[in-house]
Amino acid sequence: MGDFPAVVISGIVSGSTYALLALGIVIIFRSTDTVNFAIGDTGTLAVFVTGSLIAAGLPIAAGLLVAIVLAGLMGVATERLLIRPLGHSRNVLFIALVITIGLGLLIHAGIFLGWGTRSRSFPVLVPGSANIFGIALAWNKILAAVIAAAAMGAVAWFFTKTAFGTAMRATAEDPGAARMIGIDAGRVATIAWFVGSGMAAIAAFFLAADTSLNASLTISALFRAFAGVFLGGLTSMAGAVIGGFVIGVLDNIAGRYISANYRDTIVFAVIVLVLFIRPAGVLGAGRKERV
Amino acid sequence: MSRAATNTVALRWVSIAIAGVALAFAVGPLKMVGDYPQFIIASASFYFIAVLSVNMLAGLCGIWSMGHTAYIALGAYIAANLTKYGVPLEAILVAAAAAAGILGFILGLSAGRFSVLYFGLLTMALALVTTEVVSHWVVVTGGDDGMKVGKAISIFLPAPIETKNTVVICVLLATAVYLIGDAVNASQFGRRWLAVKGQRTAAMAIGLKPHVENATAFGLSAAIASSSGVAMAFSVAFIDPVAFSLDASITLIVGTVVGGIGSSLGALVGSGFITAVPELARDALAVANFVYGGTMVVVLLFLRQGLVPAFRARIRRWRGHGTVKAGAPRRAVDAAAMGALVSRLMPPARHSLSLKNVSVHFSGLKALDDVSFEVPPGTAVGLIGPNGAGKTSLLNVLSGFYEPVSATSVTLGDVDVLAASPSGRAALGMGRTFQHAELFPELSIRDMLLTVAGLARPLRRANRIALQDPVAITELILDGLELRPYANSLPAELPFGIQKVADIGRVLAIGASVVSMDEPFSGLDEHERSELRAILRGMHSAGVSILIIDHAVQEVLSLADKVVVLDFGRLLAYGDPASIRRDPAVMKAYFGSAHQVEVAAHG
Question: Is B297 an 8 Å CB contact of chain A?
Fold first, then answer.
């Protein structure tokens, strides 16, 4: 068990990616009740475009900003064109999920058509690696965790300290009452989809540098993010972030000490167990109709 | 269902069966098509089985499973492993269906705990776990390298079946599954599942256990999915984890969404789509995804229900089923005829419903505070009180939806009512109606009555009621309540007054002898009210115990033998209507002063 601290730390570092994606999922869900399954693909497409721009001479750091904005705009377009026309009715929650699955397939196909099926390399923001408790951890991954933490901090600040952020939280709690006091639900949705999709772009940006740039870049991370969301509850931003980190650590521990071959199985077994005890997630609100 | 309709259905089933068998022989032993079309037909067949299993669950239960690849994989690997030991195809199908059915039943039990969305995501996790297990459990699955599947052996055939002839197995299985899907849709099971899907609360009130219904449906669906895996294993002759990946699960969802849920034909269209697209786009991997994604988005945006149901709805409107014909007002129901009808459907109440010291609290608020009263057999008891008096809470205690924080007892004769689950109360002979009717949105009035009468058979048998046949009961109620013009209509197509009459029809179909009614008069116009009065008088004369909860004080006072008055959860008064009219405490609670009630009562 001598490498336990290292296992935990690298778990936290990968967990930061899951936490980012999980936070994006929850921000979007709270605004429009949509589980955006295309969130990972949106981030991936933005990073593909950015990758081409970087190859054409754009500085890597500027590329990160471009990716965030691009993904944000795609998120806004998704909400406007595909989600808002669905309106509100009993079955919309699931239909919206299936539509975003369809969108994910479209983006996937779009990437294949635009960039081909081969994976590409993607530059790191900072080279080299640090030695922590006997394991080598790339500086780029550490930076990713730091940027993820900063982004999550910014989101926390936005939602608790600014007037519009508070209004957005109010809308998530009670859309009817929010409309009555004059909060524009359309604007809330736009900002949520922008911010949520932007988070996914950060995650995809560093995942691409860590592995390679390919169309399935975010799939396994997205699943761990969903596991984190289950754990924390679909409606809790803090729960999603904590859930994402817990999954990162749990996944690493399961892979190291139990079985590297059955990581997903172990992680999901834990989630299912938790859900049977608390169907709304550990920190989720008890609003059954939403869960 | 009329005899002509029954014949049409029988004719349809026979034609489908003949078409399936003919196709199987044409492409199999008769070799009327080449190898490639043969393979496509085999693929379309096992895709169809898989899509139907997902489609049925979504259509009848509202449960969307993205994890059905798990059951398909189960079927495929059971086939691959058992064939090694010379187990015949028929036994393999049974073993796979049993294993998948049991696992599906267990998973289905939990479906009700989660929303559609959450459960969908959870089953997606199941798909993911399946891929992982299949890739790594090498002994059983051959791991990522996959495994070869031996030839199928049938107990009816002398020699093993050549792989290229397995198309016969696929087509015959698909035909059988098509018919099973159709039969389930038209059966009591299908109707029960639709009832639970549309209105969980009302479904419990007619005696259904939602989690058991969900689990049964899930088990059946999983069993069907497993046979898709068996067919796939034999016709491809080689299986590997790719066939059971998350992408495969999503493809099944595409097929379900595009074809449209709730019909075998929808599953056929959907599976045709997911078979054809990748074949047509074999040289360009991205194109298939493009078509899938694009079609899914477009269909959901513009034809929310999918192709087949959208087409059917158009036909339904064109035939004029949807609209209720205007014209002569409905013939009124007459109290004497109603009494006669009720006595054929329900036993007279034999036992007192008795509540002793019932209290219900909501975090400090006392919704019911130590309430006791009795509904003697065959009496009509009115329950009145201002808003927030606890009337609805009391009804929910009787239906089992609320558990009292304390109660000495709630009994019907010697039976402890509180010990029974909400679904168990119909079997005690207790029925209820709802303030907003709460009919089952996807069942026509006739189908609803048929379902409930079917469920009520044991109760009628126990009460020695001669009339037990669900069809006869349904027809009797349709005529007795003048609902025949609306028999084929869905609740949403009917005016509210008719919906409330249909709700009463539902309680008659249960065969309950103690009926609680939640605000039966609310939302009705004068004509409908007079009709409801006749219905209630008829039920009363037939000896049914009735508990009427309503704001329409005058109506209640004129109909009831005894009246209970609640105020802030406490029992304010209990007595005959005349004494309640004079009770100063009641006047004060209701109208603020004794003077005003005279005006209200006589004005």
Answer: yes
Residues of chain A with pLDDT under 50: 286-291
Instruction: Tell me the shortest Cα–Cα distance from A217 to chain B, in angstroms.
Output: 15
The residue of chain B nearest to residue A93, with distances taken between CA atoms, is: B117
Asked if A109 lies within 8 A of B122 by C-beta distance, the reply is no
pLDDT tens column, B74-132: 999 999 999 889 889 899 999 999 999 999 999 898 887 777 778 888 888 888 888 88
Q: List strand residue ranges (DSSP E) for A46-128, in order.
A: none
A261-268: Cβ within 8 A, 24+ apart = A261/B132, A261/B135, A261/B136, A262/B132, A262/B133, A262/B136, A263/B132, A264/A223, A264/B128, A264/B129, A264/B132, A265/B129, A265/B132, A265/B133, A267/A224, A267/A227, A268/A227, A268/B125, A268/B126, A268/B128, A268/B129
**pLDDT per position as a tens digit, B130-161:** 888 888 888 888 888 888 888 888 878 877 88
Nearest CA in chain A to B58: A94
Domain span at residue A181 reads: 19-218
> Regarding predicted confidence, which is higher, B163 or A190?
A190
Helix B445-455 / helix B188-198 crossing angle, nearest 10 deg: 110
Across the interface, whether the CB atoms of A279 and B114 are under 8 A apart is answered yes
Give the number of beta-carbon pairs within 8 Å between A and B.
122
User: ipTM of this predicted complex?
Assistant: 0.83
**What percent of chain B stands above pLDDT 90?**
32
The reported pLDDT for the residue numbered A70 is 96
> Hey, are the CB atoms on B296 and A99 less than 8 Å from each other?
yes
**CATH architecture for residues B335-602:** 3-Layer(aba) Sandwich (3.40)
A93 belongs to a structural domain? yes
Angle between the N-to-C axes of helices B166-186 and B35-61, in degrees from 0 to 180, rounded to the nearest 10: 20
- Closest Cβ–Cβ partner in A109, A265, A275 for B293: A109
Mutation target vs B (from A34, A80, A101, A112; most B CBs, 10 A cutoff): A101
Q: Is the dihedral angle over the CA atoms A158, A164, A170, A176 positive or is it negative?
A: negative
Q: Considering only the beta carbons, identify the residue of B110, B115, B129 that sits closest to A291.
A: B115
Tell me if A61 is assigned to some domain: yes
Within 8 A of A106 by CB-CB distance, chain B residues are: 289-290, 293-294, 297
The residue among B121, B123, B261 with the most chain A CBs within 10 A of its CB, best to mutate, is B121
CA atoms within 13 A on the CB side of B89: 29
Domains of chain B: which residue ranges? 13-244, 335-602
Closest by Cβ to A97, choosing from B117, B288, B289 = B117
Residue-wise pLDDT for B472-495, tens only, equals 999 999 988 889 889 999 998 898
Task: Tell whether A248 is covered by a domain.
Answer: no
Residues of B in contact with A117 (CB under 8 A): 285-286
Our count of domains for chain A comes to: 1
Greater pLDDT, B316 or B4:
B316
Judge whether A43 lies within some domain: yes
